Amino acid sequence: MKRNAYVSAAASVVLCVGGPAAAATAASADTARTVTAAAAAVPTAETAEEASAAALKHYPGVVESLDKDGTVWNVDVISKDGKGHAELEVAADGTVTELNRDTDENATEHKDLLAAEVNAEQAMKAALAAHPGQVWSVSWQDDEDGGAHSWDVEVRSSDGKIWNARVDHATGKVTPSGSDSDDGDDN
């Protein structure tokens, strides 16, 4: 309350002494502080975990897949009722762009994903616990032959090696699904 009184008094002095031009300058400086503070509040999406969080904030549901493509993350999200699907692009600065949205999905096609004990975020954490690095992709593997469902997670270590893991949808158990390899990609 006192701050508002001081600001009002200061604005009155500026207006009386410097006229409207000085008041406009003071107002634009205050606006710049507000814009800077708002920009600082925007979360970044430099990791898969941050991209997932940004996507789910934009379109609540369950992440079906996520992968890095250059400087952006492509994220597919299924709505909690299984009837909706959004294809999102998440930039490193946290900006989410909706590329496509469907609202007439067959909910039974996504029932196993929605019922999974382990979600994409938990699968990423489990894979990183087994092999440190940065998650580059995660995707739900829906076995149409009635077999086990799982998450495929790609982790890139700091030395550029790629490690692929399969994470069980019910237990979170991590099993290597490929050997380390050099990426050859500069992303």
Textual characterization of the structure:
The chain has 187 residues and is α+β, with helices and mostly antiparallel strands. It has four helices and nine strands, in the order ααββββααβββββ. Strands 1, 2, 3, 4, 5, 6, 7, 8 and 9 form a nine-stranded antiparallel sheet that branches. The longest helix is centred in the N-terminal third of the chain and has 40 residues. The radius of gyration is 24 Å and the shape is flat. The N and C termini lie far apart (50 Å). The N terminus and C terminus are likely disordered.
Number of strands: 9
Distance between the termini: 50 Å
Number of helices: 4
The chain-level structural class is alpha+beta
What is the overall pLDDT average?
80
Low-confidence region ranges: 1-17, 20-41, 183-187
Shape: flat
H-E string: HHEEEEHHEEEEE
Largest sheet: 9 strands, antiparallel
Helix content: 25-40%
- Strand composition percent: 25-35%
